[in-house]
Amino acid sequence: MELTVQDAVAWIKKSNEKIQANKDYLTDLDQTIGDGDHGINMARGFHETAEKIAGQDYTSYADVLKDTAMTLMSKVGGASGPLFGTAFLKMSQALQGSDAVDHQTLTSGLEEAVNGIKQRGKATEGEKTLLDVWSRMADFFSHETDFAGEKVAEEAKSAMEQTKDMMATKGRAAYFKERSIGHIDPGSASSFYIFEALAEVIEGGT
Amino acid sequence: MKKIINDPNEVVQEMTDGMAAAHPDKLQQLPETTVIARKDAPAANKVGIVSGGGSGHEPAHAGYVGKGMLDAAVPGEVFTSPTPDQIFEAIKAVDGGAGVFLIVKNYTGDVLNFEMAAELAEAEDIKVEKVVVKDDVAVDEVSSRRGIAGTILVHKIAGAKAEQGGSLEEVKAAAEKAVANVRSMGMALTPCTVPAAGKPSFELAENEMEIGIGIHGESGIERKDITSADDIAKELTDKVMSDFDFSDADVAVMVNGLGSTPEMELYIVNKKVQTVLSENGINVYKTFVGEYMTSLEMAGCSVTLLKLDDELKQLLDEPSNALAFHK
């Protein structure tokens, strides 16, 4: 199976819908172990991104992700803007030149996204950040041979939930030390919605 | 939520529009942005000083734009770092050929966005250096300490050095010296409400206070029963003194209000701070009492000490015509 340009557009559109629908939940998560702006920022950034993409006529998957990256970087703010922006930018670069995106290509795109997040955020796994979802998803994709929508969503959900028991050592939640344990990381929750959207696009395409 | 606003999503733009309209003789707003810059920017052959961060800390940061302090301030959304494109616009606008110096508070978002902006500027051959302020001793781990009210004194030191004609390297050295010698600690009586969130960031009972609070409504390190101004002043000052060797030093003191604490209370706190310092043999060279780095309408205060040598004293004494730091 291969993903098309329309799938890329649908991915971002669905991601936006999920983030808008869960804006208050994301903000609540961030009020518990952060500064309470994550939902607001992600909703603003993804709204702008969806608007930008809706108005374009794309010919490549990579271009959709590039516009997503640039809009997120300039509209989200906080740490999330550069981090999600970098993830989509690196993915876009890895997918450059591919007409349609097969499983292996998307996997390498996700691996590049993970490298980008690590580099930009000077982060590693286990610090209770969005990297914990992205890294596990890249790993999951690398062990599969073809797209499996339902399993993608399940894996992303489990990766997000795993952040609950972690103690934050990066980002603003790190100030809470032990008190950060028992709460889902907001950036990981947003990442889950992005992968859940991807899963639905994959399901819709089979 | 009870606030004098129009649309929670437009508060930053409407604030900077209003600010530019109030001070057309001193300030300009860069087109299509919320960046506030000196009217006369770029100053030829002077290192441009750019700071910024989330909004909601007014007068930080735009209130410190002026001769002798910042050349431009980049406000993000409320409590949210500004984005790289806006910071980049500020850098371009203040580059007078001697390079641009960035003053960044130590939050993941601020550091990431300013770094990206610096990369964009370097790609256009603008020399950029930066300093990251981390003065909040409430956080044990030094590398993750937040930048709070001490940032204003770093603005002053770096701004004065640049105004004197210091090179980018000299400005950086002076700013780094200020960062190495400044420590702060804050407390709050009430939370604050981010306009777009519509509800308070945390809850505090009528008899409670939170020690070690940051400037974004993030919870502090300890919650306990409220006590007297003297006890609060002593606790904050002791914590600051215990983190760094201020003994026998000359210091600048800042007693900063977080947004809705009356000046009366800040001066009451300052009275005790001065006593504690004097009991510890610390000589106060200069005192600042007022609202310098706020957290919307939060009630509370912070105490900052900056250890001074001859160079820092001289830079602190230089004139500034910034709206919120006129001297």
How many domains make up the coordinates of chain B?
2
Helix content of chain A: 55-70%
Query: Measured on Cα atoms, how large is the radius of gyration of chain B?
Result: 19 Å
Average pLDDT over all residues of chain A: 93
User: Could you give the distance between the termini of chain B?
Assistant: 37 Å
What's the total number of strands of chain A?
A: 2
Radius of gyration of chain A: 16 Å
- Count, helices of chain B: 8
Share of residues in strands of chain A: under 5%
Largest sheet of chain A: 2 strands, antiparallel
Element-by-element helix/strand order of chain B: HEEEEHEHEHHEEEHEHEEHEE
Low-confidence stretches of chain A: none
Instruction: Please state the overall shape of chain B, judged from the principal axes of the Cα atoms.
Output: globular
CATH class of chain A: Mainly Alpha
Topology:
The complex is a heterodimer of chains A (206) and B (327).
Chain A (H helix, E strand, L loop, with lengths): L1 E2 L1 H17 L1 H11 L4 H17 L6 H15 L4 H16 L5 E2 H19 L9 H13 L5 H14 L23 H20 L1
Antiparallel strand pairs in A: 1-2
Chain B lengths: L10 H12 L4 E3 L6 E3 L9 E8 L16 E7 L5 H11 L5 E6 L2 H16 L4 E6 L16 H14 L4 H14 E7 L19 E4 L10 E4 L3 H15 L6 E8 L5 H17 L3 E8 L9 E9 L1 H8 L3 E2 L2 E2 L1
Parallel strand pairs in B: 3-4, 3-5, 5-6, 10-11
Antiparallel strand pairs in B: 1-2, 2-4, 7-8, 7-12, 8-9, 10-12, 13-14
Helix pairs in contact in B: 2-3, 4-5, 6-7
Question: What are the salient characteristics of this protein?
Answer:
heterodimer, A: 206 residues, mainly alpha, Serine Threonine Protein Phosphatase 5, Tetratricopeptide repeat, two-stranded antiparallel sheet, 9 helices, globular, B: 327 residues, alpha/beta, Rossmann fold, Hypothetical Protein Tm841, Chain: A,domain 3, 6-stranded mixed beta sheet, 8 helices, 33% helix, 24% strand
